[in-house]
Amino acid sequence: MAGNSTTAPLLFDRTLLVRRLQRARKLGPATFLLDRVIEDMDERLSAVKREFAVVADIWTPGKEPAPGHPFKSLTRLTLQDSAGEVLKLEPESFDLVISALALQFANDLPGVLAQIRRALKPDGLLLAAMIGGDTLTELRQAFAAAEAECEGGLSPRVAPFADLRDVGGLLQRAGLALPVTDVDRIVVRYGSAFALMADLRRMGATNILLERRRMPTRRTTVLRMAQIYAERFADADGRIRATFDVIWLSAWAPHESQPKPLAPGSAQASLEAAVRKAGKT
């Protein structure tokens, strides 16, 4: 069930996403972002001084997050389990819901967050990380310039990403309390745009937009994109930069013991500090 009465617009082909992730595993997955997020999630959970016995993991690709936490019960939902983005979770069943690098591909993120809210026990925690912000801004700009120059128009190539303020508002809209968000900006350097694109394939992170162009990109456009990328976003040694913004979001199922929620858009404290503080209560 969605979080509101209207049907969310469909942006992503989630069946194609499953196939892309399967292809990535066959190619030999590039997991450096996921590894970093899982390590960070484990550290953040370790700061919470309470027991999370019953846990749900929503769509984390490839591996189990928080390996340092031997939960008594861990329910893992994969992308294959999420027909229509319906989460098969019993109401008020989980002490903790986690998700790593998956929520950015939800067509109805408000609805997914509302379902998570219902699945959490009172005072249960949601801790998730998703791609957002200015992720791949360099690639987007280079492709846009190349297509405008070589083809006279633009086509959708990189998914629209939520920004920090949007995510904080969605947490409150879903009925979650004490929402906190922050961004971990990761800049990765590559020898060329082609090396970056190879890594994106090995992450399963290539274009899954429903409105994507179905014909192969012209070779001249791709070559021009790589040239523009190198001209605009290379360091002195010739290696190019690629930005990945990981948005961290944390919120709690309402409980009478909690402080009064912040006003919409006012969640600006660091996530780590808020999680530490909540864990000591």
Protein topology:
Blueprint: H1 14-27, H2 32-46, E1 54-58, E2 73-77, E3 94-100, H3 109-119, E4 120-132, H4 137-150, H5 164-173, E5 177-190, H6 193-203, H7 219-233, E6 240-252, H8 271-279
Parallel strand pairs: 1-2, 1-3, 3-4
Antiparallel strand pairs: 4-6, 5-6
Helix pairs in contact: 4-7
Tally of DSSP helical segments: 8
- Reading the helices and strands in chain order gives HHEEEHEHHEHHEH
The fourth-level CATH homologous superfamily of one domain is Vaccinia Virus protein VP39
Query: Reading side by side through the largest sheet, how are the strands ordered?
Result: 2-1-3-4-6-5
The profile of the biggest β sheet is: 6 strands, mixed
Task: Report how far apart the termini are.
Answer: 33 Å
Rg, rounded, reads 20 Å
Overall morphology: elongated
Low-confidence blocks of residues:
1-5
Mean pLDDT over the full residue set: 86
Structure notes:
The protein has a domain at 14-135 and 161-186 and 245-279: Rossmann fold, CATH 3.40.50. It contains eight helices and six strands. It has helices at residues 14-27, 32-46, 109-119, 137-150, 164-173, 193-203, 219-233, 271-279; strands at residues 54-58, 73-77, 94-100, 120-132, 177-190, 240-252. With 281 residues, the protein is of the alpha/beta class. The model is unreliable at 1-5 (pLDDT under 50). The two termini are 33 Å apart. Helix 4 packs across helix 7 (219-233). A six-stranded mixed beta sheet has the order 2-1-3-4-6-5, sandwiched between helices.
